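REQUEST ID: PR-0412
SUBMITTED BY: lab tech R.K.
PRIORITY: routine
TASK: structure prediction, single protein chain
INPUT:
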Amino acid sequence: MELRRYWSIIWRYRVVVLALPLLVGLVTSLLFFVLPPSYTAKAKVQVVMAPPQAESPDTFFRYDTYYTYLATEYAVDDLADVLNGNTFAAAVTATLRGPEFNLNLQDEEVRGTFKVRRTHRVLLFDTTTGDRDRSLAIARAALLTLQRDPLKYFSKGDLVEKAGVAIIPIDQPLEARGDRTSRALNAIIQTALAGCAGLGLAFLLAYLNDRVRDAEGLEEALGLPVLGQIPPSGRSGRVA
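STATUS: complete
OUTPUT:
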């Protein structure tokens, strides 16, 4: 009985139920075919920083492995923001123009193409452009630039002059993956969510509508049993 009432609500508001997912599906499909694909190359490196040791052998405290890890984590707190800045992007552009890549790119073509994130002592590089080979080249150039002179991008006062920094690659950028599969999956998910939203809107409209449409609704409204029912004109029905 309840399933029949639910279906009647869905059928009554079928325009709302169907219009919302159709509209969202149309827009997402249009964007999928109109917008050009993008390609992302990922890389991951570990940063290891050796703090300066005491110059005198008689000094009581010396840095051990624990404090090496701790100093590294503190030192790279701001490193991700520094590497996302214009200075590092210009250095990456210079590397791309060098003999390793021989790509004649301008600063504005590289700036903003990669995003650096930090997780403890690990830096994650995400490079995204509209060209597969360019994304891969920029990702490799970014890692090469950082490995050449890592101390240049640390701003920790006198620690920079004495400390040693090692950039250890964990995941090299080997390929640049396109986003068409993820975009298609997002379009399907968005359309499905729009369908659920359409169903919820239909039941909300039915809840707000206090008109009586059938015998069951009348019994629920009055709290009295229905003894008879006149079928609509031109349609066969039965009297209860």
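NOTES: The chain has three domains: 2-33+182-209, 39-178, 213-240.
REVIEWED BY: pending
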